[in-house]
Amino acid sequence: MNVLQWLEVWYSRQCDGDWEHSQVVSITTLDNPGWSVDIFLGGTELEDKGFELLNIDRSDVDWVYGKVSDNIFQGRGGVNNLEEILQIFQQWAMLNED
């Protein structure tokens, strides 16, 4: 299963009639250019789980930043780093879900 398929399964498991009505998963672009991924964790098994700040700076176009703040996973990255951002979330989620 690739990371996008995994995210679809993870998202569907969170849907309980209420959770999915929040701003829960947002994938948008940045103007530098790059990607922004926000995933609301409130009401999931990942709520209040620790996430170590991640800051990888390979070049001006190849970089990844990640943190959890206010129960939102926030991933940012360069124009070719969307899959890597999702993989970071996937790995962290799989380590922290019961």
User: What value does the Rg take, in angstroms?
Assistant: 13 Å
For the report, how would you describe the main beta sheet? 5 strands, antiparallel
Strand numbers in spatial order across the main sheet: 1-2-5-4-3
Tell me the structural class.
alpha+beta
Write the H/E string, N to C. HEEEEEH
Distance from first to last alpha carbon: 20 Å
Summarize the structure.
The longest helix is centred in the last third of the chain and has 15 residues, at 82-96. It is built from 2 helices and 5 strands.
Fold and architecture overview:
It holds the Pfam family Imm53. It comes from Paenibacillus borealis. This is Rhodanese-related sulfurtransferase. By secondary structure, the chain is α+β, with helices and mostly antiparallel strands. The protein has one domain (3-19, 26-89). The protein contains 2 helices and 5 strands; from the N terminus they run αβββββα. It has helices at 3-14, 82-96; strands at 25-30, 34-40, 54-57, 63-69, 72-78. Strands 1-2-5-4-3 form a 5-stranded antiparallel beta sheet, with helices on one face. α1 (3-14) crosses α2 (82-96). The longest helix is centred in the C-terminal third of the chain and has 15 residues, at 82-96. The two termini are 20 Å apart.
